[in-house]
Design goal:
The structure holds 2 protein chains of 2 kinds.
Chain A (H helix, E strand, L loop, with lengths): L1 H16 L12 H20 L1 H5 L8 H26 L5 H10 L15 H22 L5 H29 L3 H20 L11 H6 L7 H19 L9 E3 L4 E3 L5 H11 L3 H14 L1 H19 L1
Antiparallel strand pairs in A: 1-2
Chain B lengths: L2 H24 L8 H29 L5 H6 L10 H4 L5 H22 L5 H29 L3 H14 L11 H8 L10 H14 L22 H9 L1 H5 L6
Helix pairs in contact in B: 1-2, 1-8, 2-6, 5-6, 5-7, 5-9
Classes of the chains: A mainly alpha, B mainly alpha.
The complex binds fe (ii) ion (3 copies).
Chain lengths: 314, 252
Protein backbone atom coordinates (compact mmCIF):
# COMPACT_ATOMS: atom_id res chain seq x y z
CA UNK A 1 0.00 0.00 0.00
CA UNK A 2 2.64 2.45 1.08
CA UNK A 3 4.65 1.52 -1.92
CA UNK A 4 1.72 2.18 -4.22
CA UNK A 5 1.35 5.60 -2.61
CA UNK A 6 5.00 6.31 -3.20
CA UNK A 7 4.75 5.35 -6.85
CA UNK A 8 1.71 7.54 -7.23
CA UNK A 9 3.46 10.50 -5.71
CA UNK A 10 6.51 9.93 -7.87
CA UNK A 11 4.43 9.76 -11.02
CA UNK A 12 2.57 12.91 -10.02
CA UNK A 13 5.74 14.80 -9.34
CA UNK A 14 7.29 13.67 -12.59
CA UNK A 15 4.28 14.92 -14.44
CA UNK A 16 4.59 18.29 -12.75
CA UNK A 17 8.31 18.28 -13.40
CA UNK A 18 7.67 17.86 -17.12
CA UNK A 19 5.36 20.87 -17.05
CA UNK A 20 2.03 19.08 -17.51
CA UNK A 21 -1.09 20.69 -16.07
CA UNK A 22 -3.05 18.72 -13.50
CA UNK A 23 -6.74 18.38 -14.33
CA UNK A 24 -9.69 17.67 -11.98
CA UNK A 25 -9.97 13.96 -12.88
CA UNK A 26 -6.24 13.31 -12.48
CA UNK A 27 -5.00 11.56 -9.38
CA UNK A 28 -3.27 13.96 -7.03
CA UNK A 29 -1.76 13.75 -3.55
CA UNK A 30 -4.05 14.79 -0.72
CA UNK A 31 -1.59 17.52 0.25
CA UNK A 32 -1.75 19.03 -3.23
CA UNK A 33 -5.52 19.07 -3.19
CA UNK A 34 -5.59 20.55 0.28
CA UNK A 35 -3.10 23.26 -0.57
CA UNK A 36 -5.08 24.24 -3.66
CA UNK A 37 -8.44 24.32 -1.93
CA UNK A 38 -6.97 26.55 0.73
CA UNK A 39 -5.30 28.90 -1.73
CA UNK A 40 -8.14 29.06 -4.25
CA UNK A 41 -10.83 29.58 -1.69
CA UNK A 42 -8.79 32.28 -0.01
CA UNK A 43 -8.41 33.88 -3.39
CA UNK A 44 -12.14 33.62 -4.14
CA UNK A 45 -13.08 35.04 -0.74
CA UNK A 46 -10.65 37.91 -1.28
CA UNK A 47 -12.35 38.89 -4.51
CA UNK A 48 -15.71 38.90 -2.77
CA UNK A 49 -14.71 40.61 0.48
CA UNK A 50 -12.82 43.16 -1.62
CA UNK A 51 -16.17 44.29 -2.98
CA UNK A 52 -16.96 45.85 0.40
CA UNK A 53 -14.38 48.64 0.71
CA UNK A 54 -15.02 49.67 -2.88
CA UNK A 55 -18.76 49.28 -2.45
CA UNK A 56 -18.43 51.84 0.32
CA UNK A 57 -17.95 54.55 -2.36
CA UNK A 58 -20.51 53.50 -4.96
CA UNK A 59 -23.19 55.93 -3.83
CA UNK A 60 -20.64 58.75 -3.51
CA UNK A 61 -18.70 58.38 -6.75
CA UNK A 62 -18.15 61.96 -7.96
CA UNK A 63 -19.24 61.64 -11.60
CA UNK A 64 -21.45 59.40 -13.69
CA UNK A 65 -18.42 57.99 -15.46
CA UNK A 66 -16.62 57.38 -12.16
CA UNK A 67 -19.62 55.56 -10.82
CA UNK A 68 -19.91 53.45 -13.93
CA UNK A 69 -16.25 52.45 -13.80
CA UNK A 70 -16.37 51.67 -10.11
CA UNK A 71 -19.55 49.59 -10.32
CA UNK A 72 -18.25 47.67 -13.31
CA UNK A 73 -15.00 47.03 -11.48
CA UNK A 74 -16.74 45.68 -8.42
CA UNK A 75 -18.86 43.55 -10.69
CA UNK A 76 -15.69 42.15 -12.25
CA UNK A 77 -14.37 41.26 -8.81
CA UNK A 78 -17.58 39.41 -8.01
CA UNK A 79 -17.17 37.59 -11.32
CA UNK A 80 -13.62 36.64 -10.33
CA UNK A 81 -15.01 35.25 -7.11
CA UNK A 82 -17.44 33.15 -9.16
CA UNK A 83 -14.77 31.71 -11.48
CA UNK A 84 -12.60 30.87 -8.53
CA UNK A 85 -15.39 29.22 -6.55
CA UNK A 86 -16.16 27.13 -9.61
CA UNK A 87 -12.50 26.27 -10.07
CA UNK A 88 -12.33 25.21 -6.40
CA UNK A 89 -15.49 23.14 -6.85
CA UNK A 90 -13.60 20.98 -9.36
CA UNK A 91 -11.67 19.73 -6.33
CA UNK A 92 -14.84 18.44 -4.72
CA UNK A 93 -15.68 21.23 -2.33
CA UNK A 94 -18.90 23.21 -2.72
CA UNK A 95 -19.31 26.96 -2.60
CA UNK A 96 -21.57 26.58 0.44
CA UNK A 97 -18.83 24.73 2.29
CA UNK A 98 -16.29 27.36 1.35
CA UNK A 99 -18.54 30.17 2.55
CA UNK A 100 -19.15 28.26 5.75
CA UNK A 101 -15.38 28.04 6.25
CA UNK A 102 -15.09 31.76 5.68
CA UNK A 103 -17.75 32.47 8.27
CA UNK A 104 -16.23 30.23 10.90
CA UNK A 105 -12.82 31.78 10.33
CA UNK A 106 -11.31 28.57 8.99
CA UNK A 107 -10.74 30.14 5.59
CA UNK A 108 -9.01 33.48 5.20
CA UNK A 109 -9.15 36.31 2.72
CA UNK A 110 -6.55 38.85 1.74
CA UNK A 111 -5.53 40.98 4.66
CA UNK A 112 -5.60 44.13 2.60
CA UNK A 113 -9.39 44.29 2.73
CA UNK A 114 -9.28 44.74 6.48
CA UNK A 115 -8.25 48.32 5.85
CA UNK A 116 -10.90 51.02 5.38
CA UNK A 117 -11.62 52.99 2.19
CA UNK A 118 -11.85 56.47 3.68
CA UNK A 119 -11.80 58.91 0.78
CA UNK A 120 -12.40 58.88 -2.95
CA UNK A 121 -8.63 58.72 -3.44
CA UNK A 122 -8.71 55.36 -1.69
CA UNK A 123 -10.68 54.06 -4.65
CA UNK A 124 -7.79 55.18 -6.83
CA UNK A 125 -5.22 53.69 -4.47
CA UNK A 126 -7.03 50.37 -4.25
CA UNK A 127 -7.26 50.02 -8.02
CA UNK A 128 -3.71 51.11 -8.63
CA UNK A 129 -1.87 49.53 -5.68
CA UNK A 130 -4.04 46.66 -4.51
CA UNK A 131 -5.07 45.43 -7.94
CA UNK A 132 -1.54 46.26 -9.08
CA UNK A 133 -0.09 43.98 -6.42
CA UNK A 134 -2.70 41.33 -7.12
CA UNK A 135 -1.77 41.32 -10.80
CA UNK A 136 1.89 40.64 -10.09
CA UNK A 137 0.83 37.62 -8.09
CA UNK A 138 -1.83 36.50 -10.57
CA UNK A 139 0.38 36.81 -13.63
CA UNK A 140 2.71 34.41 -11.93
CA UNK A 141 -0.22 32.09 -11.16
CA UNK A 142 -1.23 31.91 -14.83
CA UNK A 143 1.38 29.16 -15.04
CA UNK A 144 0.35 27.39 -11.84
CA UNK A 145 0.15 23.61 -12.19
CA UNK A 146 -3.58 23.10 -11.60
CA UNK A 147 -5.41 23.59 -14.93
CA UNK A 148 -8.69 25.14 -13.76
CA UNK A 149 -6.85 27.58 -11.49
CA UNK A 150 -4.41 28.63 -14.16
CA UNK A 151 -7.21 29.15 -16.70
CA UNK A 152 -9.19 31.22 -14.21
CA UNK A 153 -6.08 33.36 -13.71
CA UNK A 154 -5.69 34.00 -17.43
CA UNK A 155 -9.23 35.34 -17.64
CA UNK A 156 -8.90 37.33 -14.45
CA UNK A 157 -5.58 38.98 -15.32
CA UNK A 158 -7.01 40.68 -18.39
CA UNK A 159 -9.58 42.47 -16.27
CA UNK A 160 -7.22 43.24 -13.43
CA UNK A 161 -4.95 45.27 -15.64
CA UNK A 162 -7.92 47.49 -16.53
CA UNK A 163 -8.62 47.98 -12.86
CA UNK A 164 -5.07 48.96 -12.23
CA UNK A 165 -5.08 51.53 -15.01
CA UNK A 166 -8.40 52.96 -13.92
CA UNK A 167 -7.16 53.29 -10.35
CA UNK A 168 -4.03 55.03 -11.54
CA UNK A 169 -6.14 57.36 -13.63
CA UNK A 170 -8.08 58.44 -10.54
CA UNK A 171 -4.81 59.15 -8.74
CA UNK A 172 -3.36 61.02 -11.71
CA UNK A 173 -6.46 63.16 -12.03
CA UNK A 174 -6.42 64.04 -8.37
CA UNK A 175 -2.71 64.85 -8.45
CA UNK A 176 -3.43 67.23 -11.32
CA UNK A 177 -6.30 68.80 -9.39
CA UNK A 178 -6.79 71.14 -6.44
CA UNK A 179 -4.64 71.23 -3.29
CA UNK A 180 -7.37 69.30 -1.46
CA UNK A 181 -7.35 66.58 -4.07
CA UNK A 182 -3.57 66.27 -4.00
CA UNK A 183 -3.60 65.98 -0.23
CA UNK A 184 -6.29 63.32 -0.43
CA UNK A 185 -4.29 61.34 -2.97
CA UNK A 186 -1.07 61.50 -0.96
CA UNK A 187 -2.93 60.52 2.19
CA UNK A 188 -4.37 57.47 0.43
CA UNK A 189 -0.89 56.60 -0.83
CA UNK A 190 0.49 56.84 2.70
CA UNK A 191 -2.15 54.55 4.10
CA UNK A 192 -2.20 51.92 1.30
CA UNK A 193 1.46 51.57 0.40
CA UNK A 194 2.64 49.38 3.26
CA UNK A 195 -0.43 47.15 3.42
CA UNK A 196 0.01 46.62 -0.33
CA UNK A 197 3.56 45.40 0.22
CA UNK A 198 2.27 43.07 2.92
CA UNK A 199 -0.08 41.48 0.36
CA UNK A 200 2.83 39.38 -0.86
CA UNK A 201 3.15 37.73 2.53
CA UNK A 202 6.11 37.21 4.85
CA UNK A 203 9.71 37.31 3.68
CA UNK A 204 10.86 34.10 2.00
CA UNK A 205 12.95 33.28 5.03
CA UNK A 206 9.80 33.26 7.22
CA UNK A 207 7.23 31.81 4.82
CA UNK A 208 5.77 28.56 6.17
CA UNK A 209 4.16 27.22 2.93
CA UNK A 210 7.02 27.65 0.52
CA UNK A 211 8.34 24.09 0.16
CA UNK A 212 5.61 21.89 -1.35
CA UNK A 213 3.95 24.73 -3.20
CA UNK A 214 7.14 25.24 -5.18
CA UNK A 215 7.87 21.59 -5.79
CA UNK A 216 4.30 21.12 -7.07
CA UNK A 217 4.52 24.34 -9.09
CA UNK A 218 1.47 25.81 -7.46
CA UNK A 219 3.63 28.79 -6.68
CA UNK A 220 6.13 29.86 -9.33
CA UNK A 221 7.79 32.85 -7.71
CA UNK A 222 8.65 33.63 -4.10
CA UNK A 223 6.96 36.32 -1.99
CA UNK A 224 10.02 38.53 -2.06
CA UNK A 225 10.52 38.18 -5.81
CA UNK A 226 6.94 39.22 -6.45
CA UNK A 227 7.09 42.06 -3.95
CA UNK A 228 10.22 43.39 -5.60
CA UNK A 229 8.58 43.28 -9.00
CA UNK A 230 5.64 45.29 -7.68
CA UNK A 231 7.84 47.90 -6.05
CA UNK A 232 9.97 48.37 -9.12
CA UNK A 233 7.06 48.99 -11.43
CA UNK A 234 5.13 51.17 -8.98
CA UNK A 235 7.79 53.60 -7.81
CA UNK A 236 8.13 55.10 -11.25
CA UNK A 237 4.40 55.39 -11.72
CA UNK A 238 4.17 57.30 -8.44
CA UNK A 239 6.96 59.67 -9.47
CA UNK A 240 5.31 60.48 -12.79
CA UNK A 241 2.24 61.92 -11.10
CA UNK A 242 4.09 63.49 -8.17
CA UNK A 243 3.19 61.10 -5.38
CA UNK A 244 5.73 60.37 -2.68
CA UNK A 245 6.27 56.79 -1.56
CA UNK A 246 6.05 56.84 2.24
CA UNK A 247 9.35 55.04 2.77
CA UNK A 248 12.40 57.13 3.60
CA UNK A 249 14.66 54.13 3.05
CA UNK A 250 13.48 53.51 -0.47
CA UNK A 251 16.33 53.94 -2.93
CA UNK A 252 17.59 52.62 -6.21
CA UNK A 253 20.21 49.92 -5.87
CA UNK A 254 22.43 50.33 -8.89
CA UNK A 255 24.18 47.03 -8.33
CA UNK A 256 21.03 44.90 -8.08
CA UNK A 257 19.11 47.09 -10.56
CA UNK A 258 16.10 47.33 -8.29
CA UNK A 259 14.78 49.38 -5.36
CA UNK A 260 15.75 48.66 -1.80
CA UNK A 261 12.92 49.31 0.62
CA UNK A 262 12.55 49.96 4.31
CA UNK A 263 11.48 47.54 6.99
CA UNK A 264 7.91 46.23 6.72
CA UNK A 265 5.97 46.38 9.96
CA UNK A 266 5.39 42.67 10.46
CA UNK A 267 3.88 43.27 13.84
CA UNK A 268 1.04 45.15 12.19
CA UNK A 269 0.79 42.38 9.61
CA UNK A 270 0.28 39.66 12.17
CA UNK A 271 -2.01 41.81 14.27
CA UNK A 272 -4.31 42.41 11.28
CA UNK A 273 -4.16 38.77 10.19
CA UNK A 274 -4.90 37.82 13.77
CA UNK A 275 -8.21 39.67 13.60
CA UNK A 276 -7.40 43.08 15.05
CA UNK A 277 -7.22 45.11 11.85
CA UNK A 278 -9.46 48.15 11.50
CA UNK A 279 -12.18 46.34 9.56
CA UNK A 280 -11.89 42.58 10.17
CA UNK A 281 -15.04 42.38 12.24
CA UNK A 282 -16.98 44.73 10.02
CA UNK A 283 -16.15 42.78 6.85
CA UNK A 284 -17.05 39.43 8.33
CA UNK A 285 -20.21 40.64 10.04
CA UNK A 286 -21.32 42.22 6.81
CA UNK A 287 -20.75 39.07 4.79
CA UNK A 288 -22.50 36.91 7.37
CA UNK A 289 -25.48 39.19 7.79
CA UNK A 290 -26.00 39.63 4.04
CA UNK A 291 -25.72 35.87 3.63
CA UNK A 292 -28.25 35.27 6.39
CA UNK A 293 -30.64 37.95 5.18
CA UNK A 294 -30.57 36.36 1.73
CA UNK A 295 -31.45 32.91 3.05
CA UNK A 296 -35.19 33.30 2.42
CA UNK A 297 -34.51 34.26 -1.20
CA UNK A 298 -32.32 31.22 -1.81
CA UNK A 299 -34.85 28.96 -0.08
CA UNK A 300 -37.66 30.39 -2.17
CA UNK A 301 -35.69 29.85 -5.37
CA UNK A 302 -35.03 26.25 -4.38
CA UNK A 303 -38.66 25.64 -3.42
CA UNK A 304 -39.79 27.09 -6.72
CA UNK A 305 -37.46 25.00 -8.83
CA UNK A 306 -38.42 21.88 -6.86
CA UNK A 307 -42.07 22.59 -7.67
CA UNK A 308 -41.22 23.09 -11.34
CA UNK A 309 -39.29 19.83 -11.35
CA UNK A 310 -42.19 18.05 -9.67
CA UNK A 311 -44.81 19.26 -12.11
CA UNK A 312 -42.53 18.34 -15.01
CA UNK A 313 -42.29 14.80 -13.67
CA UNK A 314 -46.01 14.39 -12.98
CA UNK B 1 -43.51 77.10 -22.05
CA UNK B 2 -41.61 76.81 -25.34
CA UNK B 3 -41.05 73.51 -27.06
CA UNK B 4 -37.37 73.79 -26.17
CA UNK B 5 -38.21 74.16 -22.47
CA UNK B 6 -40.60 71.24 -22.68
CA UNK B 7 -38.03 69.04 -24.35
CA UNK B 8 -35.48 70.00 -21.73
CA UNK B 9 -37.85 69.02 -18.95
CA UNK B 10 -38.90 65.84 -20.68
CA UNK B 11 -35.32 64.61 -21.17
CA UNK B 12 -34.51 65.63 -17.64
CA UNK B 13 -37.42 63.59 -16.33
CA UNK B 14 -36.38 60.49 -18.26
CA UNK B 15 -32.78 60.99 -17.20
CA UNK B 16 -33.74 61.46 -13.56
CA UNK B 17 -35.83 58.29 -13.55
CA UNK B 18 -32.83 56.31 -14.75
CA UNK B 19 -30.38 58.09 -12.47
CA UNK B 20 -32.35 57.69 -9.26
CA UNK B 21 -33.34 54.08 -9.87
CA UNK B 22 -29.70 53.29 -10.68
CA UNK B 23 -28.73 54.89 -7.38
CA UNK B 24 -31.10 52.57 -5.56
CA UNK B 25 -30.09 49.45 -7.46
CA UNK B 26 -26.42 50.14 -6.96
CA UNK B 27 -27.00 50.05 -3.20
CA UNK B 28 -27.39 46.30 -3.62
CA UNK B 29 -23.75 46.04 -4.60
CA UNK B 30 -22.15 43.58 -2.15
CA UNK B 31 -25.55 43.28 -0.43
CA UNK B 32 -27.47 40.87 -2.68
CA UNK B 33 -28.73 37.45 -1.49
CA UNK B 34 -26.04 35.66 -3.51
CA UNK B 35 -23.15 36.50 -5.78
CA UNK B 36 -24.83 35.93 -9.15
CA UNK B 37 -27.63 38.25 -8.15
CA UNK B 38 -25.18 40.87 -6.96
CA UNK B 39 -23.80 40.93 -10.48
CA UNK B 40 -27.23 40.92 -12.12
CA UNK B 41 -28.51 43.88 -10.11
CA UNK B 42 -25.28 45.77 -10.72
CA UNK B 43 -25.78 45.13 -14.42
CA UNK B 44 -29.17 46.78 -14.36
CA UNK B 45 -27.74 49.70 -12.39
CA UNK B 46 -25.04 50.09 -15.04
CA UNK B 47 -27.58 50.13 -17.87
CA UNK B 48 -29.52 52.79 -16.05
CA UNK B 49 -26.46 54.98 -15.49
CA UNK B 50 -25.76 54.78 -19.19
CA UNK B 51 -29.30 55.82 -19.98
CA UNK B 52 -29.17 58.66 -17.44
CA UNK B 53 -25.96 59.87 -19.03
CA UNK B 54 -27.48 59.94 -22.50
CA UNK B 55 -30.70 61.64 -21.41
CA UNK B 56 -29.06 64.24 -19.21
CA UNK B 57 -26.46 65.01 -21.84
CA UNK B 58 -29.26 65.63 -24.29
CA UNK B 59 -31.13 67.77 -21.76
CA UNK B 60 -28.00 69.89 -21.39
CA UNK B 61 -27.70 70.27 -25.16
CA UNK B 62 -31.35 71.20 -25.54
CA UNK B 63 -31.11 73.75 -22.77
CA UNK B 64 -28.04 75.30 -24.37
CA UNK B 65 -26.61 76.53 -21.06
CA UNK B 66 -23.49 74.40 -21.59
CA UNK B 67 -24.36 72.19 -18.65
CA UNK B 68 -22.91 68.69 -18.81
CA UNK B 69 -24.70 65.54 -17.69
CA UNK B 70 -22.58 65.67 -14.54
CA UNK B 71 -23.57 69.27 -13.81
CA UNK B 72 -27.19 68.24 -14.09
CA UNK B 73 -26.78 65.14 -11.94
CA UNK B 74 -24.50 66.58 -9.27
CA UNK B 75 -25.41 70.25 -8.98
CA UNK B 76 -29.20 70.21 -8.96
CA UNK B 77 -31.33 70.37 -5.82
CA UNK B 78 -34.22 68.00 -5.12
CA UNK B 79 -36.92 70.49 -6.10
CA UNK B 80 -35.50 70.46 -9.61
CA UNK B 81 -35.52 66.69 -9.90
CA UNK B 82 -38.42 65.15 -11.82
CA UNK B 83 -38.06 61.38 -11.39
CA UNK B 84 -41.16 59.43 -10.38
CA UNK B 85 -41.45 58.82 -6.66
CA UNK B 86 -41.30 55.06 -7.07
CA UNK B 87 -37.66 55.30 -8.19
CA UNK B 88 -36.46 56.95 -5.00
CA UNK B 89 -38.19 54.71 -2.44
CA UNK B 90 -35.69 52.82 -0.27
CA UNK B 91 -34.88 49.32 -1.49
CA UNK B 92 -36.67 47.42 1.25
CA UNK B 93 -36.07 43.69 0.98
CA UNK B 94 -35.20 41.83 -2.20
CA UNK B 95 -38.88 41.21 -2.95
CA UNK B 96 -39.61 44.91 -2.73
CA UNK B 97 -36.77 45.77 -5.09
CA UNK B 98 -37.88 43.15 -7.62
CA UNK B 99 -41.54 44.17 -7.50
CA UNK B 100 -40.54 47.77 -8.10
CA UNK B 101 -38.34 46.61 -10.96
CA UNK B 102 -41.26 44.70 -12.41
CA UNK B 103 -43.63 47.68 -12.19
CA UNK B 104 -41.09 50.08 -13.64
CA UNK B 105 -39.66 47.84 -16.35
CA UNK B 106 -43.11 46.78 -17.53
CA UNK B 107 -43.96 50.44 -17.90
CA UNK B 108 -40.68 51.10 -19.67
CA UNK B 109 -41.24 48.21 -22.03
CA UNK B 110 -44.34 49.95 -23.38
CA UNK B 111 -42.93 53.43 -23.04
CA UNK B 112 -39.67 52.96 -24.92
CA UNK B 113 -41.39 50.90 -27.60
CA UNK B 114 -43.35 54.08 -28.35
CA UNK B 115 -40.53 56.54 -27.80
CA UNK B 116 -38.52 54.73 -30.46
CA UNK B 117 -40.97 56.26 -32.92
CA UNK B 118 -40.43 59.78 -31.60
CA UNK B 119 -39.90 62.45 -34.23
CA UNK B 120 -36.98 63.60 -32.12
CA UNK B 121 -34.07 61.61 -33.52
CA UNK B 122 -31.98 61.67 -30.33
CA UNK B 123 -34.80 60.48 -28.08
CA UNK B 124 -35.70 57.82 -30.63
CA UNK B 125 -32.12 56.55 -30.74
CA UNK B 126 -31.75 56.46 -26.96
CA UNK B 127 -35.11 54.70 -26.76
CA UNK B 128 -34.07 51.99 -29.19
CA UNK B 129 -30.97 51.21 -27.18
CA UNK B 130 -32.88 51.41 -23.90
CA UNK B 131 -35.56 49.04 -25.08
CA UNK B 132 -33.06 46.22 -25.51
CA UNK B 133 -31.87 46.68 -21.95
CA UNK B 134 -35.36 47.06 -20.52
CA UNK B 135 -36.42 43.75 -22.04
CA UNK B 136 -33.76 42.06 -20.01
CA UNK B 137 -34.64 43.99 -16.83
CA UNK B 138 -38.25 43.03 -17.29
CA UNK B 139 -37.47 39.37 -17.78
CA UNK B 140 -35.24 39.33 -14.75
CA UNK B 141 -37.79 41.04 -12.50
CA UNK B 142 -40.65 38.92 -13.81
CA UNK B 143 -38.74 35.69 -13.17
CA UNK B 144 -37.97 36.73 -9.64
CA UNK B 145 -41.47 37.92 -8.80
CA UNK B 146 -42.89 34.61 -10.02
CA UNK B 147 -40.20 32.57 -8.32
CA UNK B 148 -40.64 34.37 -5.02
CA UNK B 149 -44.41 34.59 -5.28
CA UNK B 150 -44.64 30.88 -5.97
CA UNK B 151 -41.70 29.92 -3.73
CA UNK B 152 -42.23 29.60 0.00
CA UNK B 153 -44.93 30.99 2.26
CA UNK B 154 -42.52 33.61 3.49
CA UNK B 155 -41.42 34.74 0.05
CA UNK B 156 -45.03 34.89 -1.10
CA UNK B 157 -45.93 37.05 1.88
CA UNK B 158 -43.01 39.38 1.17
CA UNK B 159 -43.96 39.82 -2.48
CA UNK B 160 -47.60 40.45 -1.60
CA UNK B 161 -46.55 43.05 0.93
CA UNK B 162 -44.28 44.76 -1.59
CA UNK B 163 -47.04 44.84 -4.19
CA UNK B 164 -49.45 46.35 -1.66
CA UNK B 165 -46.96 48.98 -0.59
CA UNK B 166 -45.77 49.96 -4.04
CA UNK B 167 -49.12 50.02 -5.74
CA UNK B 168 -49.94 53.63 -4.88
CA UNK B 169 -46.75 54.77 -6.59
CA UNK B 170 -47.64 53.25 -9.95
CA UNK B 171 -50.26 55.81 -10.98
CA UNK B 172 -47.63 58.48 -11.38
CA UNK B 173 -45.91 56.60 -14.17
CA UNK B 174 -48.84 57.41 -16.46
CA UNK B 175 -49.30 61.04 -15.44
CA UNK B 176 -49.06 63.68 -18.09
CA UNK B 177 -48.80 67.45 -17.83
CA UNK B 178 -48.32 70.48 -20.07
CA UNK B 179 -44.86 69.27 -21.03
CA UNK B 180 -46.19 66.05 -22.47
CA UNK B 181 -49.13 67.75 -24.17
CA UNK B 182 -46.91 70.27 -25.90
CA UNK B 183 -44.41 67.68 -27.13
CA UNK B 184 -47.07 65.21 -28.22
CA UNK B 185 -48.39 67.67 -30.76
CA UNK B 186 -45.23 67.20 -32.81
CA UNK B 187 -44.93 63.51 -32.14
CA UNK B 188 -41.95 63.93 -29.80
CA UNK B 189 -43.45 62.63 -26.55
CA UNK B 190 -45.28 59.41 -25.77
CA UNK B 191 -48.92 59.39 -24.69
CA UNK B 192 -48.32 57.67 -21.37
CA UNK B 193 -52.00 57.44 -20.47
CA UNK B 194 -52.48 55.14 -23.43
CA UNK B 195 -49.99 52.68 -21.98
CA UNK B 196 -51.98 52.05 -18.85
CA UNK B 197 -54.23 49.29 -20.16
CA UNK B 198 -51.36 47.24 -21.51
CA UNK B 199 -49.42 47.71 -18.30
CA UNK B 200 -52.30 46.58 -16.09
CA UNK B 201 -52.90 43.54 -18.25
CA UNK B 202 -49.31 42.43 -18.24
CA UNK B 203 -48.79 43.06 -14.53
CA UNK B 204 -52.04 41.26 -13.67
CA UNK B 205 -50.96 38.27 -15.69
CA UNK B 206 -47.55 38.06 -14.04
CA UNK B 207 -48.90 38.53 -10.54
CA UNK B 208 -51.43 35.76 -11.18
CA UNK B 209 -48.58 33.41 -12.11
CA UNK B 210 -46.93 34.44 -8.87
CA UNK B 211 -50.04 33.71 -6.77
CA UNK B 212 -50.21 37.36 -5.82
CA UNK B 213 -53.40 39.36 -5.47
CA UNK B 214 -53.83 42.65 -7.22
CA UNK B 215 -54.48 45.46 -4.71
CA UNK B 216 -57.82 47.24 -4.83
CA UNK B 217 -57.88 50.58 -6.59
CA UNK B 218 -56.92 53.33 -4.19
CA UNK B 219 -55.30 56.70 -3.92
CA UNK B 220 -52.26 57.21 -6.14
CA UNK B 221 -49.35 59.30 -4.87
CA UNK B 222 -48.21 62.17 -7.03
CA UNK B 223 -45.93 65.17 -7.05
CA UNK B 224 -42.77 64.48 -9.01
CA UNK B 225 -43.90 66.34 -12.12
CA UNK B 226 -43.70 69.47 -9.98
CA UNK B 227 -40.53 68.44 -8.21
CA UNK B 228 -42.31 67.47 -5.00
CA UNK B 229 -40.70 64.31 -3.70
CA UNK B 230 -40.67 61.94 -0.77
CA UNK B 231 -38.22 62.62 2.06
CA UNK B 232 -35.92 60.00 0.60
CA UNK B 233 -34.68 61.83 -2.48
CA UNK B 234 -32.78 64.44 -0.49
CA UNK B 235 -30.73 61.71 1.14
CA UNK B 236 -29.89 60.05 -2.16
CA UNK B 237 -28.71 63.39 -3.51
CA UNK B 238 -26.75 64.36 -0.44
CA UNK B 239 -24.71 61.20 -0.74
CA UNK B 240 -24.42 61.32 -4.49
CA UNK B 241 -23.50 65.01 -4.63
CA UNK B 242 -21.24 65.07 -1.59
CA UNK B 243 -17.87 65.36 -3.33
CA UNK B 244 -19.06 67.75 -6.00
CA UNK B 245 -20.60 70.01 -3.37
CA UNK B 246 -17.75 69.78 -0.87
CA UNK B 247 -15.08 70.53 -3.50
CA UNK B 248 -16.84 72.72 -6.05
CA UNK B 249 -13.59 73.62 -7.87
CA UNK B 250 -12.42 70.05 -8.33
CA UNK B 251 -12.81 67.85 -11.38
CA UNK B 252 -12.79 64.09 -10.91
FE1 LIG C 1 -8.79 41.74 -6.91
FE1 LIG D 1 -10.26 40.46 -9.10
FE1 LIG E 1 -9.47 43.84 -9.76
Amino acid sequence: MEQAQDTLLREFEEKIECGFAIEPKDRMPAGYRKHLVRQMSQHAHSEVIGMQPEGNWVTRAPSLRAKQILLAKIQDEGGHGLYLYSAAETLGVSRDELIEQLHTGKAKYSNIFNYPALSWADIGAIGWLVDGAAIVNQVSLQRTSYGPYSRAMVRICKEESFHQRQGYEIMAKMMAGTADQKAMAQDAMNRWWWPSLMMFGPHDSDSPHTGDAFKWKIKRHSNDELRQKFIDKTVQQAEVIGLTIPDKDLKWNEEKKCYDHGEINWEEFSRVIGGDGPCNKQRMEHHISVHNEGAWVREAAEAYSAKQQYSKNV
Amino acid sequence: MTEQQALYKYSLRLGDNALILSARLSEWCSNAPFLEEDLAVTNMALDLIGRAQAMLKYAGEVDGNSKTEDDLAYRRGERDYYNNLIMELPNGDFAYTMVRQLFVSTFELFFYEELQKSTDATLAAIAAKTLKEVKYHHLHAKDWVIRLGDGTEESNRRVQQAVNQLWMYTGELFEMDGTDALLMKDGIAVNAEHLKMGWIQMVTQILALANIELPADGYMQSGSRMGIHTEHLGHILSEMQYLQRAYPDATW
